[in-house]
Every structure is written in C-alpha cells, then in structure tokens.
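Write out the 3D structure for:
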Amino acid sequence: MMKAKHISYLIACMLMLCSLNTQAQNAFPYPALPDTLRSVEQRATYLSEHYWDNYQFADTTQLKNEEITEQGFVNFIDILARFNDEIAQKGISAFTAKLTHRSLPRRNSRA
C-alpha cells in the first residue's frame, strides 16, 4: 500500500514537471536585463538590442508556434514604439541581423 502511494506521488510530480516544461516552451524567451544597467535609456537600449537573443530562429517548431513567435513579435513592435528612434533602430538592426546572418536554416541549392 505504501509503495503504491509513493508511486502515485512520483507520477504526480513527473506530470507537474512535464506541465511546467511545456509551459516554458510556450513562452517567449525574453532576455534578462543585467543589474548593472541603471538608467532607463541603458535598459531600453539593451532590451531593444538583445530582445531576440534567446529565440531560436532555426527551431521550426518554435517558429511555427503562434503563441511564441507572433506574440513575441507583437510585443517587440510595441516595445520599440515606446523608445526613441535611435534605440528603436538599434533593435530593428539587431533583429534583422539575427534573421539574415546566423539562425535561419539554409536551403539546399541545386546547381
């Protein structure tokens, strides 16, 4: 009887951990702001430049997940609209650099 109770608790814990893992996978991976950045401008610049750092553009499952990708992009646009033009431009430049330079899967070219 005790053994069955322990197994039930173990299964319940495993299900909770799986649920937490799934929730984490369905959330946009926002960057953490360093504690050393004190001014609003420093924090805004960091956020605009590093917003996409933890997002894996090569992960097609994540890319197709609207809860993550679409909402993350909408939030990015909303955040940029709150910054001055210089900071917003840095964010857009960082975003396009990530899209074009490192993360997207390469298509096979046929010669």
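Residues 28 and 68 are 5 Å apart (CA to CA).
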